[in-house]
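Hey, can you fold this?
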Amino acid sequence: MKNANLLSILLIFLLSCTPDSYKTDILGSWKQVEWTIVESGQAIKQTMDFTFFDNERYEVDYGTEKEVGKYWLTGSDLYTKEDNRVEKKVKIMVLTQDSLVFEMNRAGRLEEVVLIKK
């Protein structure tokens, strides 16, 4: 029983850890190349380019407006909190030095965003 508890605690700790590479790989400017509704595959025709800074600040350029705030990573979750707004969370599916794919729930539907490093 004692070993099972220890194993459970260790497993929870490991799953909550953010890979060290995420912290550096996410830094920089990202251009959105694809944004789709997962269920239908329908493309969303809107810009969503990101810049992540090493001071845990971010900026999103939607083309006609910008969003700025702070961000943090927990496991495979990326949290953003626009200045003076509530936090949002997306699930990172892929993050490498040159590509970022995440899924988000927007208005009750799952959407996938694909970005490449500028």
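Oh, and this one too while you're at it.
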Amino acid sequence: MVVPSAAPMLMTRNLLYTGITRAKKLLIIVGIEKVVEFMIQNTNIKKRNTGLAYKMRERRKLKF
């Protein structure tokens, strides 16, 4: 898993956790140790505005 320096809002514990849990047999983290430590400490969770709920409602309105 490559862990580059990026905007702090992208370097979250959730992202690191996802990468770690998707590894099947082996995980090698490539990056600066301080960046990984920052990600572990960064528990900020931002609301994701995906529009999924709106899309699902609109999809229901369509008749096939």
